[in-house]
Amino acid sequence: MADIIEVQHLCKRFGEVTAVDGISFTVGAGEFFGLLGPNGAGKTTTIRMLYGFSPPSRGVIRVFGMDISRDWRRIKARIGVCQQDNTLDPDLTVEQNLILFAGYFSIPRREARARAAELLDFFALANRRSAKVMDLSGGMIRRLTLARALINRPELLILDEPTTGLDPQSRHQVWDRLEKLKASGLSVVLTTHYMEEASRLCDRLIIVDHGKILVDGSPEELTLRHVGRSVIEIGGPDQALRDYLKAHEIAHDDLGQRLLLYTPDGNEISTAVRDNFCHDQCTFRSGSLEDVFLRLTGRELRE
Amino acid sequence: MIIDPQTISWRFVKVWQRNLVTFQRIWKVNFITPLLEPLLFIAAFGLGFAGLLSTIRYAGAEISYTAFIAPALVATAVMNNAFFETTYASFVRMYYQKTFDGMLATPLSIEEIIIAEIVWSATKAAAAATIMLAVLGAFGYVKWPLGLLMIPLAFFGGIAFGAVGLFFTGIIPTIEMFNLPIFLFVTPMFLFSGTFFPVSNLPLWAQPLALAFPLYHLVQLSRLICLGLHETVPVLSVLYLALFSVIFILLALVFMKKRLVK
């Protein structure tokens, strides 16, 4: 699998602040790649450098084998970007938004019309084609933004938090469309705060914090490596449990009111915990990417 | 080098088209001002002022006061249309609608967006001038067919005022602060560029100041076209406006880029 994105020792400084601090990664053709991290970790900054919006302070970015600082126009012609902010034209209709945007890629008018119709169909917006963007719901705006990002038939789609602020129905609809696009062989780079979204969609992901990469792997690998197959959540843990965990050196996170226990499945420890320490508030569940994320980036608030 | 020639191509026309499509959506509203403004001024000055001041001496000729201000009205409309387009309207597109951010995810360059904004403001100014010309022509204040030259002149002047407007958009922190360049730059120009009275009526020390105003030169060229009269050398006015445009296009490029590239 040829790499379509190659990032080497990428840095971005804003005055005294180092937003991205020497990260390197690659994305293969056809891969659905996730870029996760808490607020201020440098996700959006990285993404903006990937599509040539911000120039890197240091490092190299190659997309489709070309250097973004030199061949930005040719690269941009072949990628689609769904930005975090709504950048649609509020005064124009749904269809006009797509057709004018196609113009920026020098797509002929007739071809643009055909593609717009096709994309509006795909994103279930065909019946709103003459509506003004101002009158659309949040979910429709996001779907239209996605449709617009696909108007140039990109080989790489870059998504910056595509489902933030959407209701569960809209979010599932977006996921469904993204899965279809993935099946068609499109390469995707995604940033998100929803671990469920990353687990479901990403083949591989990195978690970044303070501008550096913490881990790299598939969602399953990372969960197994950093959390384990199963987790026991114990509410109101007592001193006896804490002493027991300490004595047996069992991996856990003590959150005060709640204690998370990372144990291999069917292990004698989990049986022992179940028998001796689970009074009423005890949940047995499988490990998730969210556990990985919180273990690696900490639980304190950011911003 | 301030500008990389690779960043500027004819692609800017696509951004210009986007503005045209948005403009067409409310074209009726957009046309009301240039249609009514000259009528209001002619009514006020032609009817209300005529008793006080029937004729005025300009460039050695005796002309009616209304004929004197008519070309200046077109020139000030050019200034207002272009300047307000690249200040308030461009700022809204840049800051509130994030239109430029969206465009920068496409093969467009920042330079093309900036050039398109300036060219669009000049187009809008030329459209307004055309309508005003038709109204003023109907009252006999325009010499035909020479008067048609007002349209390219309006575009030319529009570039100068659009460029200076976009320069302010590049440096202004908030939209409310456009009051400052309007109060310090646009309003004095509107009043003292030989628009409502000849610059020769100003005290001697103030006359060179008026000559530094781009609007003064646009007014001079407008009178030349509409009345066939001039009190300064027209070529110098053309050169002054051209130089002013080049300087502020470069400044707009530098400061808008600084603002948009993060």
Q: What would you say this structure looks like, in words?
A:
The complex is a heterodimer of chains A (303) and B (262). In chain A, the strands form 3 sheets. Chain A has a 6-stranded mixed β-sheet with strand order 6-7-8-3-9-10, sandwiched between helices. Chain A folds into 2 domains: 3-223, P-loop containing nucleotide triphosphate hydrolases (Rossmann fold); 228-287, Alpha-Beta Plaits (2-Layer Sandwich), CATH 3.30.70. Chain A is built from 11 helices and 14 strands. The mean pLDDT of chain A is 92. In chain A, α3 (94-104) crosses α4 (109-122) and α8 crosses α11. With 303 residues, chain A is an alpha/beta fold. Chain B has one domain (14-260). Chain B is 71% helix and 3% strand. Chain B has a two-stranded antiparallel ribbon. Chain B contains 10 helices and 2 strands, in the order ααββαααααααα. The mean pLDDT of chain B is 92. The longest helix of chain B is centred in the first third of the chain and has 32 residues, at 65-96. With 262 residues, chain B is mainly alpha-helical. In chain B, α3 packs antiparallel against α5 and α5 (110-138) crosses α10 (234-260).
Query: Roughly how many Å apart are the termini of chain A?
Result: 38 Å
Helical element count of chain A?
11
**What integer is the average pLDDT of chain A?**
92
Approximately how much beta-strand content do the residues of chain A carry?
25-35%
pLDDT under 50 segments of chain B (min length 5)?
A: none
Helix count of chain B equals 10
**SS class of chain B:** mainly alpha
- The second-level CATH architecture of the largest domain in chain A is 3-Layer(aba) Sandwich
Strand arrangement across the biggest beta sheet of chain A: 6-7-8-3-9-10
Could you tell me the strand content of chain B as a percent range? under 5%
Helix residue percentage of chain A? 25-40%
Order of helices and strands of chain A: EEEHEEHEHHHEHEHEEHEHEEHEH
